[in-house]
Amino acid sequence: MWTLPEANEIAQPNANLEEGSTPVATEYDKTIASLETELSAARSLQESLLNGSPVAEEF
User: Whole-prediction pTM value?
Assistant: First the structure.
């Protein structure tokens, strides 16, 4: 079982990219955001399965 991270361990999203950001950095930010969303959905699904909650058919 995994433990929740401490508040100081949680990465803060970059709301404003610096002027000189490279396209590669911007692409990495988008990829990371996508992976975070996917991870959140997987955690929700796992929690639903562990708690016996109904799950949508798309999963």
Answer: 0.52
